């Protein structure tokens, strides 16, 4: 479907996601209703016409439309001719007769004013002819907005100067930004398409709404395509997207398109590089591309490059479409020019390889040598691309060399998580009849490239086992991947242990020490999950004794990494952090996306527990970023983001991430992260007081854990949250049943210390709900001391929050306040923002202060810009307390009182206690 000027609009709206299309329509409708004017802008195909249609549908009155066309932009009155069938256009041509133009102004304004409430829609004002522009500007100035509401659209990314000028200079603006990853995921979910496609779809379409609508339509029509099992986007379903991308490129001037073609042949470019490659007007053309939304600023240039801003295409579809608008000889010439222009030797070698027609041994050798440079620089994807190019250039009579290069390419693709490149390498190796070892290693590289997402992996396992025959080394490698699949995809811990044990025996028989180390590490991992607390450390020690460097087998597969994870399970967080920080430089140097994601995710978990919540958010953001960049399975990173936000971000954001993680993990049949996502979702619901929803989620967690056979409750500590949710939701029998089971399962072992403390807190909640508050308080005091000794301030503060609630229900307000004040100090020190807000909320309610509904601004009265902590102190000072007395009542130091009081003075613009008392209303100091 196309708009009035040939722009694709399709089914652009309707995602329903937070911040998605629906909210754009609501925002535009509200602005139009409030101000009577709205300027909508965005690039080609961004959905301007679709949004206008949605606004028109919401409009109650009649509508007048003007569609400006590029071919009519110099034709006087071309736009006015569309109003009332051109009835006002009589007599002289206004372009040459000033009196006629004045008359036309007056007649049009009079006609507009006589039809109050008529919505005037002007589309593509960048092509509106001068006379129509002048007349409509006059109407906008003279007819009030409540009598003549106007919506104008302009094709541009930056401020819509023409549309703004048409409506007086400063109308409300609505920018149609590209759809985000969340909106993309919501669109796919609404169509029943796999969540694992979200990152790839978003990258290919760049969030561009016309491209996105075409992509979703194509994928929806081919959901049963075999390629759907691989997590790749089926090429056949992208044809319409590619056609639209080519149409968008066709809308730019030919000389600009020539520069864009060259830019598309390199990953990212700047004007200096393009000029060196022969594009003389590069600066102007890059600026045009940025204004049109075809290009976006990418990143600062590397140190060896120029200081110019680097740009890339806004969508991968544009990168793919731009070069094919030129013929093959022209593309080869551009590659030769870029080879001479880029300063990165590996990139230069890649361009030389693309410029080479046919096979050439020397070029192939130079391209393969460049892959070594790329690998050393941590760019495994480029290394794989170079090796694939080298294999293509290798002469036919050097068959073994070609296969070796393809095998190396498969390995580098697996490290980079580059599924498409891994598939290409494996396909070519099988087609070229590589050795069993080469075929199996290439197929395993495909599995490794998919990481957590092993949906549809059985055919790959079958092909690998067939190629392996009876070779113990190859079979060991296959069994190790089967163990991972059983653990992650099936959630069958016992089967995973069986595969891992078999892999270790086969690796030892084959005398492959690195593979044996990786297999033993997997055995230890599953022994721990199955609750074999004595066996797991012994097996892990055997793996460590083999002294295999972590990078040799992948950091995430190494015993050193599992040692850190076991420290996390045991609650030995400082030791876990130290081990992870030793592994992080190795992961950064190697550039393996999945290793980096694993280390960053673990650091986020550890720092959340240690009370370094801001730092934890940073690690989680890094994991999210590399997950998107490397097209890894999003479920694990979204789960970690939910965990980090539940400590230091916001409960609302944590719930959104948990929901995404659950949706993605279920779509990928990732049982492990389905369980984890449900746990964090239930925990956040519990923190927010949604106890029924919390209980429902945690009941499902209990079922999945029982199904998996997991028997070490410390690996995923959901049980205490479940007990508390059941007790608070009025399900005491279920709460006590789980408590009794945990009493039999949890051992007097250091590994279970954190879990024991959490279960003690949940037992206190059960006692409190049953009316035994005295016993509950005793248990909570014990729990707070335990968490303090463990060095987990957020858990300690959470325990004090529960204690305060118990005291409040006992009508012991002073004791409740003391607990909540102590909790707040802990939360503030940990930068645990959602928990600080929760403590503030309790204190505000206790003080009898008005609580403002979420999202509604407080009235601007003295004291409303103070935090609950500051209001509490202000109230004590106004009641006559000295600094020392206030410090004693608030359980803080005198120095803290003095600094807080200085902050209060600054906020209220006062200088002393007398002025403070005079300024604050009684409610502000309550």
Labels describing this entry:
two-stranded antiparallel ribbon; 926 residues; 45 helices; five-stranded parallel beta sheet
SSE blueprint and pairings:
Layout: H1 21-35, E1 37-42, H2 48-58, E2 63-67, H3 98-113, E3 119-123, H4 130-142, E4 150-155, H5 161-166, E5 173-175, H6 181-190, H7 198-205, H8 209-220, H9 239-250, H10 254-264, H11 271-276, H12 282-292, E6 295-297, E7 311-313, H13 316-321, H14 328-341, H15 345-355, H16 361-376, H17 380-393, H18 399-416, H19 419-431, H20 436-450, H21 458-468, H22 472-490, H23 493-509, H24 513-529, H25 535-545, H26 550-553, H27 559-570, H28 573-590, H29 593-610, H30 613-629, H31 634-648, H32 651-667, H33 671-687, H34 691-708, H35 719-728, H36 732-745, H37 753-769, H38 773-790, H39 793-809, H40 813-830, H41 833-847, H42 868-878, H43 883-890, H44 894-908, H45 913-919
Parallel strand pairs: 1-4, 1-5, 2-3, 3-4
Antiparallel strand pairs: 6-7
Helix pairs in contact: 1-2, 3-4, 6-7, 8-9, 10-12, 14-15, 15-16, 15-17, 16-17, 17-18, 17-19, 18-19, 18-20, 19-20, 20-21, 20-22, 21-22, 22-23, 22-24, 23-24, 24-25, 25-27, 27-28, 28-29, 29-30, 29-31, 30-31, 31-32, 31-33, 32-33, 33-34, 33-35, 34-35, 35-36, 35-37, 37-38, 37-39, 38-39, 39-40, 40-41, ...
Structural summary, described in words:
- The chain is mainly α.
- It is built from 45 helices and 7 strands.
- Strands 2-3-4-1-5 form a 5-stranded parallel beta sheet. The protein has a two-stranded antiparallel ribbon with strand order 6-7.
- Helix 40 packs antiparallel against helix 41.
- The protein starts with 20 loop residues before the first helix and ends in a 7-residue tail after the last helix.
């Amino acid at each position: 479907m196309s708009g009035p000027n040939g722009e694709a609009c399709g089914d652009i709206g309707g995602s329903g996601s937070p911040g998605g299309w629906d909210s754009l329509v609501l925002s535009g409708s509200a602005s139009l209703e409030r101000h009577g004017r709205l300027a909508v802008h965005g690039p080609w195909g961004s959905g301007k016409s679709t949004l206008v249609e949605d606004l028109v549908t919401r409009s109650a009155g009649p509508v007048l439309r003007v569609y400006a066309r590029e071919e009519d932009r110099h034709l006087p009155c071309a736009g006015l001719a569309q109003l009332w069938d051109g009835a006002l256009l009589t007599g002289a041509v206004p372009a040459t007769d000033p009196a006629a133009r004045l008359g036309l102004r007056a007649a049009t304004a009079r006609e507009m004013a006589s039809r109050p409430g008529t919505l005037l829609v002007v589309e593509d004002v960048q092509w509106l002819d001068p006379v129509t522009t002048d007349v409509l500007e006059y109407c906008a100035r003279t007819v009030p907005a409540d009598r003549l509401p106007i919506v104008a659209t302009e094709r541009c990314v930056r401020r819509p100067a023409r549309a703004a000028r048409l409506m007086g200079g400063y109308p409300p603006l609505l920018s149609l930004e590209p759809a985000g990853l969340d909106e993309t995921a919501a669109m796919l979910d609404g169509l029943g398409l796999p969540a694992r496609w979200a990152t790839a779809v978003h990258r290919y379409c760049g969030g561009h709404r016309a491209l996105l609508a075409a992509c979703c339509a194509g994928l929806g029509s081919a959901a049963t395509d075999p390629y759907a099992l691989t997590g790749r986007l089926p090429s056949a379903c992208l044809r319409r997207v590619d056609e639209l991308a080519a149409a968008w490129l066709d809308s730019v001037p030919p000389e600009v398109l020539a520069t864009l073609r060259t830019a598309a042949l390199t990953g990212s470019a700047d004007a200096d590089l393009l000029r060196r490659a022969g594009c003389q007007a590069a600066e102007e053309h890059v600026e045009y591309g940025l204004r049109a939304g075809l290009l976006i600023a990418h990143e600062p240039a590397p140190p060896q490059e120029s200081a110019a801003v680097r740009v890339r295409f806004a969508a991968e579809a544009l990168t793919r479409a731009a070069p094919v608008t030129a013929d093959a000889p022209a593309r080869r010439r551009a590659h030769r020019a870029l080879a001479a222009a880029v300063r990165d030797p590996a990139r230069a070698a890649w361009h030389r390889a693309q410029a080479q027609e046919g096979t050439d041994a020397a070029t192939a050798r130079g391209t393969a040598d460049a892959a070594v440079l790329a690998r050393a620089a941590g760019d495994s994807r480029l290394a794989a691309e170079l090796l694939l190019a080298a294999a293509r250039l290798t002469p036919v009579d050097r068959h073994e060399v070609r296969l070796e290069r393809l095998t190396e390419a498969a390995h580098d693709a697996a490290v980079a998580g580059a599924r498409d490149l891994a598939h290409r390498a494996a396909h070519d190796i099988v087609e070229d009849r590589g050795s069993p070892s080469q075929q199996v290693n290439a197929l395993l590289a495909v599995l490794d490239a998919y990481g957590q997402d092993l949906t549809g992996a059985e055919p790959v396992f079958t092909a690998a086992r067939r190629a392996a025959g009876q070779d113990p080394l190859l079979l060991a490698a296959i069994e190790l991947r089967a163990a991972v699949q059983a653990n992650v995809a099936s959630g069958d811990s016992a089967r995973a242990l069986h595969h891992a044990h078999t892999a270790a025996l086969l690796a030892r028989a084959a005398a492959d020490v690195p593979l044996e180390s990786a297999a033993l590490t997997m055995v230890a991992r599953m022994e721990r999950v199955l609750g074999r607390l004595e066996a797991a450390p012994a097996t892990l020690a055997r793996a460590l004794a083999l002294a295999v460097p972590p990078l040799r087998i992948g950091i995430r597969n190494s015993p050193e990494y599992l040692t850190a994870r076991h420290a996390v399970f045991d609650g030995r967080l400082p030791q876990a952090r130290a081990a992870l920080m030793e592994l992080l430089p190795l992961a950064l140097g190697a550039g393996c996306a999945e290793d980096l994601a694993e280390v960053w995710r673990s650091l986020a978990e550890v720092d959340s527990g240690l009370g370094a919540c801001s730092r934890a958010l940073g690690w989680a953001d890094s994991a999210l970023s590399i997950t998107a960049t490397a097209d890894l399975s999003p479920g694990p990173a979204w789960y970690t983001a939910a965990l980090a936000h539940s400590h230091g971000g916001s409960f609302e954001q944590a719930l959104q991430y948990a929901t995404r993680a659950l949706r993605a993990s279920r779509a990928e049949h990732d049982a492990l992260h389905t369980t984890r996502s449900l746990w964090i979702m239930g925990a956040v619901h519990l923190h927010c007081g949604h106890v029924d929803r919390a209980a429902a989620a945690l009941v499902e967690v209990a079922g999945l854990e029982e199904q998996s056979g997991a028997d070490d409750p410390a690996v995923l500590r959901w049980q205490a949250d479940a007990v508390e949710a059941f007790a608070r939701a009025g399900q005491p029998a279920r709460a006590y049943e789980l408590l009794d089971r945990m009493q039999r399962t949890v051992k007097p072992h250091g590994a279970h210390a954190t879990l024991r403390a959490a279960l003690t807190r949940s037992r206190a909640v059960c006692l409190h709900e049953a009316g035994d508050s005295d016993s509950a308080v005793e248990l909570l005091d014990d729990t707070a001391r335990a968490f303090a000794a463990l060095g987990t301030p957020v858990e300690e503060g959470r325990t004090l929050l529960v204690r305060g609630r118990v005291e409040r229900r006992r009508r012991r307000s002073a004791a409740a306040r003391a607990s909540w004040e102590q909790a707040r100090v802990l939360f503030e020190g940990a930068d645990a923002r959602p928990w600080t807000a929760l403590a503030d909320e309790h204190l505000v309610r206790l003080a009898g202060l008005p609580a403002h509904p979420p999202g509604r601004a407080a009235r601007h009265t003295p004291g409303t810009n103070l935090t609950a902590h500051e209001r509490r102190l202000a109230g004590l000072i106004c009641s006559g307390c000295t600094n020392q007395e206030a410090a004693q009542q608030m359980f803080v130091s005198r120095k803290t009182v003095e600094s807080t009081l200085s902050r209060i003075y600054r906020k209220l613009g006062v200088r002393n206690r007398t002025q403070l008392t005079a300024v604050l209303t009684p409610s502000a100091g309550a």
